[in-house]
Amino acid sequence: MKKRNKSSKKIGQLFIELGLVKPKHIKEGLEYSAQWGKRLGISLVELGYMKEKDLVKGLAAFFSVKTMSLPNIRIPKNVLNCVSQLIVEKYQVLPVYFEGEKLIFATADPSNFDMIQNLEFVTGYGIEFVVAAASELRAAIDHYYLGKVRGTAPVISTADKITSKENLLNTIKGCLVENIITKDELISELIDL
User: What angle do CA 83, 87, 88 make, to 5 degrees?
Assistant: First the structure.
């Protein structure tokens, strides 16, 4: 994924060119964004000027990434085990598949470039994003990590979290990235075991 440079088109202009909104909606969306501290796309959806699926289309075009519909996909356990629930919840991302040496994540906000470095550190893989609707992403995170959909059990069970060395290491890396524990505290805790 490429970072947008300053000479690149603004996202609101792209939304207009794609026929997703009218210029007057961008103005109102920007005012709403400033008032409530939200991104323009989210503001346009909340104001009713844009559908969530159109926001996904616009973000994908702006950031030159693919889109993904999450409700009907099945994510393999080995992909889910690459990232802890802590990281998934913090960044609102979902690992969905491997493509060569890269781990592909679904996100509703592909603009967070610092997140890429943190995810690369935590997973040990190169990272790329696909854009998904925020509502679909939240439902998929709830399903795969919390087991909330249709009363199913979590795909990653407590036993998997404890017995999987890979998942344990990724959880530890996540705790270090999030400053939940320092390396010295971790070593001290491990020595006490």
Answer: 80
- Burial of 153: CB neighbours in 10 Å, binned 0-12, 13-18, 19+: exposed
- Residue 192 in tokens: 């006490």
- Residue in 41, 37, 35 with CA at minimum distance from that of residue 15: 41
Q: Of 36, 64, 92, which residue sits at a domain end?
A: 64
pTM of the model: 0.71
Measured distance CA(56)–CA(100) in Å, rounded: 25
Tell me: the pLDDT tens digits for 149-180?
A: 433 333 443 334 444 566 566 666 655 655 55
What is the token pair recorded at 90? 């913090």
Domain that holds residue 155: 67-192
Backbone φ and ψ for 106, nearest 5 degrees, come out as: -90, 140
Measured distance CA(6)–CA(176) in Å, rounded: 33
